[in-house]
Amino acid sequence: MTNLAQYDPDIAHAIKNELERQRNGLEMIPSENFVSLAVLEAMGTVPTNKYAEGYPGKRYYGGNQFIDVMETLAIERAKKLFGAEYANVQPHAGSQANMAAYFAVMKPGEKLMGMALPMGGHLTHGHPLSFSGTFYQVVPYGVRRDGWLDMDEVRAIALREKPKVLVCGASAYPRLIDFKAFAQIAHETGAVAIADIAHVAGLVVGGAHPHPFPETDIVTTTTHKTLRGPRSALILAKAQYGAAIDKAIIPGLQGGPMEHIIAAKAVCFKEAMEPSFTDYARRIVANAKVLAETLMREGLTLVSGGTDNHLMLMDLTALNMAGKQAEALLDEVGITVNKNMIPYDPRKPLDPSGIRLGTPALTTRGFTEDDMKIVGRTIAEVLKNPTSDDTKSRAREVVRGLTEKYPLYPDLKYATY
Ligand SMILES: *Cc1c(COP(=O)(O)O)cnc(C)c1O
What we know:
CATH class of the largest domain: Alpha Beta
Bound molecules: pyridoxal-5'-phosphate
Shape: globular
CATH topology of the largest domain: Aspartate Aminotransferase, domain 2
Number of helices: 16
Distance between the termini: 11 Å
Largest sheet: 7 strands, mixed
Helix content: 40-55%
Number of domains: 2
CATH architecture of the largest domain: 3-Layer(aba) Sandwich
Structural class: alpha/beta
């Protein structure tokens, strides 16, 4: 990247520093990952110059013969990867994918039933500060006191409220989601079943989490979390919803698609179809299980008593610590996690009682179950000894050892001047 470094050293330096930060720390935010160099290369290419409003073969602009090749490959691969009848690869991000899915099947003012944000759901599942809580009448559901979803309660609420859409999926739920049961409840109550698999998409296609198809009507997902592709999103659906979703994306919500990112999504889908991806998905979950067991053995509290997927939620109440403080302490030693609300959190959204951590990014780097034991013990020691400088120095050494053992992008060089 010598052109960038020469022309804009300030930005080049910040990008290089970000690469070093990613290399030198333990990335444990469960919604983050490291893309392959093939995906990274595709993102920085010339399709960014092209306007391609419309769809392959039906564009509003000329000169799209090669853009159509990329987008068609992305669509066909997405359908194959997820076993879907229809795919739209144009949503810019997960939030836009959800907006388009709702827009396709629901009018403003109709009822949306989704998991509440403080219970592990996403902003776009009906939070009052999101478009979803502004345009629609929201019926929330949550988890039980023990942190587990209660499908009988979900069914009772759906039967009583008769929502137009029942959306399932979560951003901070450490257990498996029974997409089939959600779809059955939706259909029993006359709702459209939407599954937002943003977090677990990689596990789903890797066979490490139940699949939303064929029962679910519409499936939305990001492509940058466990799926390990570019920062973007995707909508999959039964064929009957295709025309409405296409219209919801354009002219409904977006203009020109980002075809360089769509090219990178196509690469990501190809990678996710490799047998090695199935192994990756299995290792994410195995690593999360060992991490959870280690943390609990060290006396720390996990919501729902552990994990079945890629993430866990730690309840810090017993340590007399807030999520903010835990996030900052771990950051000091090079471990990145995020503060997060826990179900029935007595504290405030910006100052919650928990942290959320996960294994997708570390698993991409090559971390094993034995490494996760070391990581778990290190996290526990730091959280239990928040004022000890010795503990912090030891933790920094552990982090350094592990990041050197599994170098990130060893051949990638960003020039700076
Ligand atoms: C991350 C996430 C999204 C939103 O993705 P963005 O790309 O950040 O807009 C949507 N739904 C769920 C469940 C998520 O976890």
